[in-house]
Every structure is written in C-alpha cells, then in structure tokens.
Amino acid sequence: MSKSAGTTPSNAHVVKWVQEMAAMCRPEEIFWCDGSEAEKENLTRVAVETGDLMPLNQQALPGCYLHRSALNDVARTENLTFVCTEEKEEAGPNNNWMPPAESYDRLAKIFSGSMRGRTLYVIPFLMGPAGSPFSKVGIQITDSVYVVLNMRLMTRMGEMALDHLGGSDDFTRCLHSKADLDMERRFICHYPQDNTIWSVGSGYGGNALLAKKCLALRIASKLGQREGWLAEHMMVVGVESPDGEINYICGAFPSACGKTNLAMLVPPAGMKGWKIHTLGDDIAWLRVGADGRLWAINPEAGFFGVAPGTGSKTNPNAMAMLKKDTIFTNVALRSDGTVWWEGHDDPPPNHAQDWRGKPWDPNSRNTAAHANSRFTVSLKQCPTYSSEWEKPQGVPISAILFGGRRQKLVPLVFQSFSWQHGTFLGATLASETTAAATGDVGVVRRDPMAMLPFCGYNMGDYWAHWLSMAKRATNPPKVFRVNWFQRSDQGKFLWPGFGENLRVLHWVIERSKGAGQAQETPIGYVPKVASLRGEGVKISQADLDQLVAVDRNGWKQNLKSQSEYFDKFGDHLPAGIKEEHKALADRLKA
Ligand code: OXD
Ligand code: MN
Known about the structure:
- The chain has 16 helices and 32 strands.
- By secondary structure, the chain is of the alpha/beta class.
- The strands form six sheets. Strands 1, 2, 5, 6, 7, 8, 9, 10, 11 and 12 form a ten-stranded mixed β-sheet that branches. Strands 13, 14, 15, 16, 17, 18, 26, 27 and 30 form a nine-stranded mixed β-sheet that branches.
- A hairpin with a 4-residue loop joins strand 11 and strand 12.
- The chain is 28% helix and 23% strand.
- Bound molecules: oxalic acid and manganese (II) ion.
- Manganese (II) ion is lined by residues 233, 255, 282.
C-alpha cells in the first residue's frame, strides 16, 4: 500500500478508482492535489529538483520555467492514438481502433509497476465554469509533475472540481504514466463507453494533458452525440464594433493554423473603435439555448500555444501574456536565462542552447526552438481576456468559421447557403499538415471540421449529429469557410492575415445579420471585393480579385476526391452530405 499525502477526497468512487489504479502502477506515494498556491510552489520546487523544469531569468520572466522534453516526445502521435469501442464501426475509418478488452490488457501490462519509486499525483479538474450544468469533471492520475503544473494552468483544478462532483461517480477516469517514454510502448486509448482514458509512454501536451484533446474533444464529442450538443476544435472570440455591439464567433482550424492569433488579434490601424474579447483558442462546447441559438463555453482555462511564429507583429497580445507565470516547452534558451524561438521579436541570438540543450548559433543547420515548441499560460493573462468566459450559459454564437491552410483553390472567405451546406463545408475541409503532429509537414489532407484527429466516434455519425442540430437550433449560426494562406504563383501570401483578418470577421458578422455585400457562386457567397477594402488596406485590386475568385475547374476536380473520401464512411454517410455533394456538382456544371 503506497503512502498518501494531501487531503483524500470524500467521494468514495474517486478514492476506490485511484486505489485500483495505484495497485496496478505501484507508486511510492499518492499525492492528492488541491490546486492551491502553496501546492503550486511546492510542486514547482520538486519539478526544478527533478530537472522537469528549469527556472528562467526570474527578473526578466518572473514565475517562468523551461521544460525540455525527451527527443522522441515533441508532438501528438496520431498513429498511437486509439478509440476502443466494442465494434470497429463505432470508431469509424477516422480512428485507429482496438477492442477494449485487448487494449486494457496490453496497456495494463505497461502500466503495471510503471510508477515504482515515483509519486502518483491525483488531479481533480473541472471543464467549464463552476456551477454550470454544462461542465464536466475529470480526475487525472499522472506520474509527471510537469503534467500537474500544466493541468493547473489549462483547467480549473482542485477542490472546485470535487465540489462540483459531490458524491457522484460521473467523472472521466484519466490514467496517465510517462512510464519509460518508449515509442514502442506508447498508447493513447479512449474508452467512450466507460468514460475512461488511458495514456502511457508520452509526456507531450496533447498526449498527456488528458483534459485537452482526450477528454474535451474525443470523449466529449461522444458525450455530445449522446446528450445533444457539440464538442469542437474551435476558438471563441467576441468582436465588438465601434457602436459597442459584440458578436461572438467560433472558428475551427487544424492544429497550428493560427487559432490562437485569431482569438486575440489586434484590430488594424484602419479599424478604429473595434475591440476583441478572447474566450478561448482551441476548444468550444456548443449547446442549443432556449432562444434556439447555439451558445458556446470554452471548457479550458489556459492556452497551450505554438511558440514559433509568435511575435509582436503576428500576436502582440500573446507576447504580452508570456512575460510571467508561463511554462515554455522546447524553446531555445539564451545566455541571459530568457527564451527565444524563430519568429520572436528579437534577432537570432549569437549563442544559445537549442531546444535539446545543445549549443546553437545562427549558422546552425537546425532551428533553435522545436517547430512545435509551446507555451502554457493562464487565459486570464491575455490582455483581451473576456470575463464572459466565466458565464455558466456561455455566449451566443453568430458565426462559425472553418479554415485551413491552402495555397490555392479555397477563397479568402465564403458563406454557406444553409446549415446543411455549412455542415458540408466543414465535412470537406482539407489543410496542409503542420508540426503539431508527428509525420510529414505540408501535405494536404482531409480534416473535416478540423476534428480528424479528435472526433471520438465514426465521423459519418458525427456529420449526422451536426445536421440534426438544425432541428433543435431554430436560429443557428451562419457558417463560413476561410483561408488566410492563399499564395500567388510566385509563392507570395496574397492576404496580409493577422490583424487584417478582422476585415473578414466584419464581413462575416454583417452577413450573419443578413447584411453585407455578396455574390452568389457555385461554392457559396463570396464577398464583393469592395466590402473587404476599407481604410489602410495595402493590397492590390488584382490580389483582392484573386483572393475571392472561384476556380470552377479546380472545384470540379476536387469533387472526385470528396466522393472518394466520403465513400470510406459507407452507410454512415448521411443523406444531407450526399445531397450537398450532388448539389455542388450540379451548380458547377450549370
Ligand atoms: C493543440 C493541437 O495542441 O491541436 O491544440 O495540437
Ligand atoms: Mn488544437
């Protein structure tokens, strides 16, 4: 029997489950986290002693630490991520699958004794505002103090979660051990029928902070299907116009495609009086309100953002929030004890340690920071943080964006004809891959709703669930596709992006209110170029024309790859999606 520290909770279901898991993992000690400041200080000290965290220059960056991961543990490993349902079909062609009995058995062998000589931390956490009927409780077990300190920033952790749970056993059982970090013994397994996640062999955010992708997306998407709501890979932002009206927008983009920048953009000089209110940069849970609209909460409490490319030109608000109480992972370390990454405001340092801790200078062949290096920071540190994040009912959503990284074909923005067509626009989303997951970078892959790696059940059924929302949501948000990443034949970005994206959001808001100038095309409504102009836009008429042009031949060719993709879902492909595919083909022919 392991010794125990901290206060054991009164919930007997939690205690029983932790004892069972401890009997398998055999830690030296069980530590019950309460989420307090004193505990944070204590655990930070432990993390520094064990080398999990390295203190940064505390004058320049108070409360900031650097973590260097194992070299083989720098991104999500989608090939090692499984949905373990009784039937393979329930998980769908979009997921790796293992039967639950086989998977529990294989993983139990790896978990067995994996925490010998280590502390098992128990982290109670709440996803969503305290007291909200929409919030969910998770209990994570981990042997990584880095994970505990990250979970503390990313969730509402500690007593608040146990209070919300009361005596109930309705919590997600999240078991994590870094074990020996061996890729051959790494598995991230989800058991939706048991509301359980087992993750072993990785300490990386998306694999190990089980509140995030595992619970708030994979498990929650299934809960949402059962309970009539949506768990989505979306940022949530409030856009305030100069007359004080705030419209809320959700946006789904694949990993490392600029959700964080969009969620906290700074209005361009030509748009005086506009303000941005940030509620979340990665995950939204959407429910139908009594008014027939969709209302969103961000279940998380922090940002786990990509560092490279973050600077005062691209995201000044992020730069401001990273000055204190931040955990940096796999960035470069300068000789003065501060951090640097490619795209940082400062020029490359003459000498630094790269993300592996090796000497680096500007002539080095490798980047100084890892392409998927990260910062973890509390949402409340964002200068544009919106206290609406605390509202138990969330915020009403006017528009949903689906965006990807596409050099060609996809216009800057276009609007769907209906909710069904909007669902089709999400279902046909494709994007060039990024360093957020292991594997090739820059390859176009289909990533429906930016949920391909995160949908915890058959994607065909998920589209059907999306379509069914229209029955309950009598006034659903308008749905748009966006693409900030179009390039000219010479490879130059056509759209300036970042703060200038507010011009697109402005058009989106106008359209969602039934105003705004648009032109009907076979793929949807595109903006009249004049509506994107506005004061201070330094972009040529020719580029603007190209940005909203519809390449009929390109779209015709795309139809074939859409149907090849849809065919994989067999009988699970809903009629509404087939109808939209046919309607698009007819419009392109006309
Ligand atoms: C993330 C991701 O970390 O999508 O948010 O990979
Ligand atoms: Mn993400």
